[in-house]
Specification:
233 residues, alpha+beta, five-stranded antiparallel sheet, 6 helices
């Protein structure tokens, strides 16, 4: 019998749907195709996914992990779909639960059978070293509000993932932070305060070229400024 303690972890199921868009798919770096769970110093757990270009981190204050400081679990399309369907039961949120190698969705570890809403087949543990997410996370005290102050931009595909974090009927305000030009951009989704996203910037065209593209619109802009403001009808 192995002396290795059995790992147990839990976190709210709703976080799976938020993190999934930032997880790698069919990547040769198989350890990126999963969700990383790490014990937080102040209690709770950090949940992290990345594809090497963008990264999402959630802090679940009620989450727990026992038997290890961290672990990576596989996230199948079935688990994602089940997490999206997860609802409050008697005012208690459904949880993603890891017991040993087994991942399921239920209210608590003691729930079995009728108390479970989903069980992921097979061994859900992912071997390999997940990237050190803390190393690429900027010093938050050095961040300045706003981003892309240099000749840079962001891949729209990565930015669009932020819109998937909230229901289309809800306001999806984004706050951008950056320590300096060309550094990682930290994005907060106002509707999900327990989460932040990091996107690496990409070089864009020089200022002069970008400004030249406004030329066809200059006359219209000037005319608009000269007209007296009127209240909309």
């Amino acid at each position: 019998m192995s002396d290795t303690p059995q790992i147990r972890a839990r976190f709210e199921a709703k976080h799976i749907a938020r993190l999934a868009p930032f997880m790698a798919r069919n990547d040769i770096r198989y350890y990126l195709c999963g969700l990383y769970i790490e014990k937080a110093e102040q209690g709770g757990v950090y949940l992290v996914t990345t594809d090497g270009h963008s990264m999402a981190v959630v802090y679940d204050a009620t989450g727990t992990i026992e038997g290890a400081e961290n672990v990576t679990i596989s996230i199948t399309s079935g688990l994602i779909a089940a997490a999206k369907r997860a609802k409050m039961v008697g005012g208690i949120p459904q949880q993603v639960l890891l017991t040993g190698q087994r991942v399921r969705i239920a209210l608590d570890f003691e729930c079995n059978g009728a108390g479970e809403s989903y069980v992921q087949a097979g061994n859900s543990l992912v071997e390999g070293n997940f990237p050190n997410w803390r190393k690429v996370t900027p010093d938050f005290h050095k961040l300045k509000r706003g981003a892309f102050t240099g000749a840079e931009g962001v891949n729209a595909v990565y930015l669009a993932r932020c819109a998937k974090l909230v229901d289309s009927k809800r306001f999806c305000g984004l706050s951008f932070w950056q320590a300096a030009p060309r550094k990682a951009v930290v994005i907060q989704v106002d509707a999900v305060p327990e989460m932040f996203v990091i996107i690496m910037p990409m070089m864009a065209d020089a200022d002069e070229l970008q400004r030249s593209r406004f030329t066809p619109f200059v006359a219209a802009s000037k005319a608009s400024m000269e007209e007296p403001e009127t209240e909309p009808a």
